[in-house]
Amino acid sequence: MTNKPLIAAKGLSVHYALRGKLIGPKPYVGAVENVDIEIAPGSFFGLVGESGSGKTTLGRAMLRAAPISRGDVVFDDGEVAYSLKKLGKKELKDYRKRAQLIFQDPYAALSPRMTVRDIIAEPLEVMGLTRNRAETDARVREIAAKCRLNVEHLRRFPHAFSGGQRQRISIARALVSGPKFIVADESVAALDVSIQADVLNLLKAIQQDMGLTFLFISHDLSVVAHVCDHVAVMYLGRIVETAPTRTLFSGPRHPYTKALLSAIPSLDPDDRGKAQKLEGEIPSPTNPPPGCKFQTRCPVAIDRCRVEEPTLEAAGIEHKVACHRWQELAD
Amino acid sequence: MSRLIDVENLTLQFDTDEGRITAVDNVSFSLEAGEVMGLVGESGSGKSVTAKSLMKLNPGNAVYGPDSKITLHLDDGPVDVLSLKTDREMKIVRGGAISLIFQEPMASFAPAISIGDQMVEQLLIHTNFSKAQAKEVSIEMLDRVGISDPSTRFGQYAFELSGGMRQRAMIAMALSTKPKLLIADEPTTALDVTIQAQVIDLMKDLVSEFGMGIVFITHDLGVIAQTADKVAVMYLGRLVEQGTVRDVIRKPAHPYTRGLLAALPTLDDIDAPLTPIPGDIPSPLERPSGCVYHTRCQEVIGPRCAAQVPAFHNVDADHFAACHLYDPQEGTT
After folding, report:
1. Is the CB of residue B163 less than 8 Å away from at least one CB of chain A?
2. What is the C-alpha to C-alpha distance for residues B223 and B121, in angstroms, rounded to an integer?
3. Rounded to an integer, what distance in angstroms lies between the CA atom of residue B40 and that of residue B115?
4. Which end of chain A has less neighbouring CB within 10 Å, N or C?
5. ipTM confidence
6. pLDDT at B1
């Protein structure tokens, strides 16, 4: 990438301790292992993978909401530069204003006892961003309008809203502190298709309008293909492939990416049974296989894959892949 | 093929504190043995309630319309499902002739009873097997759905199995009684795409092997395209379109079906804009008059849409849409 990244993970690992033995090294689960990603300002960066791949943990680590065990996350928006590993209490508070999270389930994320106005205003009050109630109200109304909520909505409670409207409220709440970086974790997964398109269009519009940078976490590749400009594919805590969206979808290199793409049910009823099927399931991160983590399910694994773990190597412009055999399988 | 089930004029309302809510409004369809029908719709469209009424599995405040009739054609003659009263009678359909797979496999297994015991229990209720036979059949079914080391899995609990494995166990359990009709309520929605592809394959194999009928409920049109023979689209309790899977997906006739397809992100053209259906699905307490879809429809042809409930019109042979656009009288008057 030519311009300086807004946020970058450098050799980032997130480990969770397991109940240990009394002696010897402490056992742990490597939820995220040695991940390098760079997200340019103003980009809509997609992170895909199956459940258990570590995509949510990576997203949280970039918000300093998961422990950073090794490596670091570097944030630089031009005003401040933070190394998330060494953030002090005051700096962390400031970082919370600059980086926000939109949750998956709009039914669980909103307190049923607060009005929509109070839900959206809460971050402002907690962070002390406004001086008085009038200022808070003005800011809430401004953000609500951007998220296509009207003043009438602000007086009501969340139960009165449909899934799509609730997700717009969650978005407004995330945006109210004026963040630069937003992690959207499966933010449309719980919505119906007709509403999903509406929320995706809203996210895109807001991103362009406010110059935001998104990390968009999703298991749905067709959604990612439509909204993201850059995509990283995760498997068992590792990035296995990363590329600009168009490159990734027109020429996937990693066998896992290929399998994911082909597993999407086609809308053509005559396409049945053509999909390339992936056997088995993602292994448990407490007991990862040796060598390449994908070797247990990979249709093209060779002996080398079972002993040596591949590293990310360049496969094109901004295109990286972690596979021993990508080159010979390319054509 | 022989007729398996007929649903005629099914109307279902719920008595609630806020008044009587119409969940299903005059729905009719039928299914042959060995046929897979996809029932598509968004949340709140009444698709799950419709499927559950095939087993009369709705809560006590459910009120069926007087003209509603569900006939299940079994080997010993037809059964009028809605007239069943006692639990004993109900056993014929519930878990006997009809099995149901729920969306959330974690919630449908009892957490403190082993998978095997749950499978054996329902076999003892619905078949004449001895305990040993039931165990044997259960392990065989687990093996059949691709669970490795089935005799170990038999003794395990739901939390020890992964999501995909739980859904397979659920399918094994639902099929072990050899039902005539399987209702699958969003069976793959909670699964990853790679696991979803495995489960869809498995279900297809089982249909051809056992020759049962399946009502496959989903909101995912891609899954429908890959599994169903025919499709019924529901909106706010009404059927709006019915036809073969090729007709409905390739030549959607009802504006709602077209809207659903336009809102769907596809990989064929990633630059195509996503077109949402404007507005939200109305609350069942405020059902629109006339055509229930007219408040969001982009092809409203006049005041008629808000005033008159559209009848089912032929679009093609075996392809119907409940929309005034296809009324042969429209335009001539």
Report:
1. yes
2. 32
3. 31
4. C
5. 0.81
6. 64
A50 DSSP assignment: -
Highest mean pLDDT among A281-285, A311-315, B205-209: A311-315
Q: How would you classify the pairing of strands A28-39 and A7-17? A: antiparallel
Place of tokens 């599994």: B227
Window 174-193 of B, Cβ < 8 Å to A? 192-193
Under an 8 A CB cutoff, do A265 and B223 touch? yes
How many Å apart are CA A102 and CA B289, to the nearest integer? 37
DSSP state of B94: B
What single-letter amino acid sits at B131?
K
* Cβ-Cβ contacts under 8 Å for A125 (sequence gap 6 or more): A136
Q: How confident is the model at residue A1, as a pLDDT?
A: 45
**Distance (Å) from the C-alpha of residue B330 to the closest C-alpha of chain A?**
28
Q: What confidence tens digit (pLDDT) does each residue in A103-140 have? A: 888 888 899 999 999 999 999 999 888 889 999 999 99
pLDDT digits (tens, 9 = 90+) for A201-260: 999 999 999 999 999 999 888 899 999 999 999 999 999 999 999 999 999 999 999 999
Type and span of the H or E element at A171: helix A163-175
Determine the Cα–Cα distance for residues B221 and B41; give it in Å rounded to an integer.
9
Cβ neighbors of A241 (< 8 A, separation 6 or more) are A232, A233, A248, A252, A253, A254, A256, A257, A319, A320, A321, A322, A323
AA identity, residue B299: E
User: For testing the chain A interface, which of B194, B247, B271, B295 should be mutated: the one with the most A CBs within 10 Å?
Assistant: B194
Query: What is the rounded CA–CA span in Å between residue A50 and residue A282?
Result: 8
Rounded to whole angstroms, what are the CA distances from A181 to A8, A100, A102, A212, B179? 12, 6, 11, 6, 53
- Which of B188, B192, B221, B230 is most worth mutating to test chain A (most A CB atoms within 10 A of its CB)? B192
Helices (H), ranges, chain B: 47-53, 87-90, 105-108, 115-126, 131-144, 150-154, 163-175, 193-210, 221-227, 245-250, 255-263, 304-307
Q: Would you place residue B42 in the very low, low, confident or very high pLDDT band (cuts 50, 70, 90)? A: confident
**DSSP letters of A190-227?**
TS-HHHHHHHHHHHHHHHHHHT-EEEEEES-HHHHHHH
Q: Report yes or no: A149 and A206 within 8 Å, Cβ to Cβ.
A: no
Angstrom distance (rounded) from CA B28 to CA B22: 16
Place of tokens 């791949």: A53
pLDDT one-digit tens code per residue, A158-214: 988 888 889 999 999 999 999 999 999 988 887 888 888 889 999 999 999 999 999
Q: Which residues of A touch B165 (CB under 8 A)?
A: 281
Distance CA A80, CA A290 (A): 41
